[in-house]
What does this fold into?
Amino acid sequence: MLYFYKNEFIKKEELRISPDDRGYYFGDGIYEVFRVYNGQIYEQEGHMQRLQRSASEVRIALPYKLEDIESILTKLVHENRLIEGTIYLQITRGEAPRAHPFPTEAHPILLAYCNEVKRPIATIRSGISAIALEDIRWLRCDLKTLNLLPNVMAKQAAIDHGVQEVVLHRNGIATECSASNLMMIKNNVLYTHPANNLILHGITRAVVLRIAKALQVEVHEEAFTLEQLLQADEAFITGTTVEITPIIQFDGKPIGAGEPGQLTLKLQEEFERTFAI
Ligand code: PDD
It folds into this structure.
């Protein structure tokens, strides 16, 4: 696989990363994960806007113009002949001896590569189980930064409990999941946490809300509690890698009939039609 690192396209085996990269010491950087379907980058513009916003909020200057970053991604997909998969892109603040203040001399470093990844079709069709877990992250979850230790711990907690995902909550109010957004349906109304500082403003979240509105589904961007989630008719997670994956069991109890719900199936169908997947 051909990678992009520090101004050049390079083979993974030839790529060398310095321990002085601030991403390595401090998680001092930002990232995006893009989906590729049929050789095309899905919702590229939304990802680029979010990248730009994360960079500006953490005060990292993008090393290239947005259109040049887009060309790098296109070339990676093309050169690696990627039809179905993901692209990972990260930008760190640069290389400098370890010290907390922003280094004055460092230049931001862009790393990007793609992976062949199939859609997780089994869980998309059958659904997953989740448990509740306290959301111990910082108060800027809207920024896609490299500081993912709480997310990693959360995902592992799910695995340790024999389930696939956690529903993060602050004082009983559900926010999102370890690497996806959360939605529930009650009486044909779709609820999801507002896009504020407590959740990532997911690209798939926005796509699903768009699709729901087009289907005349009532959408409330309103926070809900864990108890409300337990009483929901349907629930699902959304994300670049998970698409729309139903949650059929929460904290050991079935959600709705304990199988993917009718509206969830309709949204999935429309999602697949929209992206021709
Ligand atoms: N994660 N919430 C969190 C905490 C996430 O990490 C992600 C995505 C999402 C969904 O966002 P989007 O629809 O834009 O993918 C929500 C990526 C895939 C990851 O970290 O691997």
